[in-house]
Design goal:
Elements: H1 6-11, H2 14-27, E1 36-37, H3 39-46, H4 50-63, E2 66-67, E3 74-76, H5 109-124, E4 130-132, H6 134-141, H7 145-157, E5 162-163, E6 169-171, H8 176-197, H9 203-218, H10 224-235, H11 245-252, H12 256-268, H13 274-288, H14 292-317, E7 329-331
Antiparallel strand pairs: 1-3, 2-3, 4-6, 4-7, 5-6
Length: about 325
């Protein structure tokens, strides 16, 4: 299997990147036979929590490249034969990597946990109503409860989770009514916000946004990162200069569309919608020509059309099998 480029590694999910690096090291013979692979040292090496490391190791085990043994962790054992455990300090050297290769996620721990819990919540809420346990989440990620609580507070601001009076965190369900209300709210607020912020957008910024849309139109294999970047461009970055913070908060809380798109991509492999890209392109071209009122009107129309597309996608999700969820989430209904 061909090694991932640096760009591919950054856009792939963490566990996929970790799996690819370890797989290459095993297949190429850089990782010694019998090398003991442990979650905690690997998590430290890759600058992540144990969760993506655990998933990467599970996949390598299913592929037959590593094996269980009478001890903690796995053994590098692509031939599936009896081999003696080789316990070494896990470092770049053990996997044939040089110091210039970008492996470590340098973001603060809280930022990484915020993202990982957000992904888990985004996956679950389309399938029901869930309770999240702080302590279980802290144990799951190997972090303090305070780190988890901070992440949950931020996710609450984005409308992904809510806090009950008795200290329970609840998420979901994501319903057709919620999707409709999200879009109705955004259709009222975003066009006017764009009228206010459009004069402050630089030509260079808009041209870069338009280039991303055109690239996606020309590439049917756009990644989830590409799609979310395009959505963020129009619905977040173009509106970032809004002075009314209350309106900005309400717009930011309309998360359901991207949640549905993310599940569609992860579960069904369905990427950018052609109609969505065409609508984004028209709005950005109007902004580049200084036609701010026309751009705002087209943004309103885009949101009405997007609502119908998302409701159709939500119907599809209702018949899909539920996804595997972390242990800190309990389904209520």
């Amino acid at each position: 299997m061909k090694s991932m480029s640096a760009e591919d590694s950054r856009t792939a999910s963490r566990y996929a990147m970790i799996r690819q690096v370890l797989r290459d090291a095993i297949v190429n013979g850089a990782a010694a036979h019998g090398l003991v692979l442990l979650e905690a040292p690997l998590a430290e090496l890759f600058g992540t929590s144990r969760v993506p490391v655990r998933k990467a190791l599970d996949l390598l085990h299913e592929e037959g490249l590593i094996s269980r043994f009478d001890g903690r962790g796995y053994l590098v054992n692509p031939e599936g034969i009896a081999v003696e455990p080789l316990r070494l300090i896990l470092s770049r050297t053990q996997f044939g990597l040089d110091s210039s290769e970008e492996l470590v996620d340098t973001r603060p721990l809280g930022e990484r946990i915020f993202e990982e819990i957000g992904v888990a919540l985004s996956t679950c809420i389309a399938f029901g109503h869930f309770r999240l346990d702080e302590q279980s989440a802290a144990e799951h990620y190997g972090v303090s409860r305070a780190v988890v609580r901070e992440a949950l507070m931020r996710l609450r601001d984005r409308g992904l989770v809510e806090k009950e009076p008795y200290s329970q965190w609840l998420a979901g369900p994501l319903t057709a009514r919620e999707v409709t209300e999200d879009y109705e709210l955004r259709a009222c607020l975003e066009p006017e916000a764009l009228r206010q912020t459009a004069p402050g957008l630089s030509r260079e910024t808009l041209e870069a946004m338009l280039a991303r849309v055109i690239a996606a139109q020309n590439n049917p294999d756009s990644t989830l990162t590409d799609i979310e970047h395009i959505e963020e461009d129009l619905h977040h970055h173009c509106l970032a200069g809004l002075q009314n913070r209350k309106i900005a908060t309400l717009i930011r809380q309309g998360q359901s569309p991207m949640i549905i798109s993310r599940i569609f991509y992860n579960v069904l492999g369905i990427g950018a919608d052609e109609a969505m890209l065409a609508e984004h392109r028209l709005i950005l071209e109007l902004l580049l020509h200084g036609a701010f009122d026309a751009a705002a009107l087209n943004l309103k129309e885009h949101l009405h059309r997007a609502r119908q597309r998302m409701l159709q996608r939500l119907k599809v999700l209702s018949v899909l099998p539920e996804q595997e969820l972390p242990s800190y989430l309990t389904k209520l209904s």
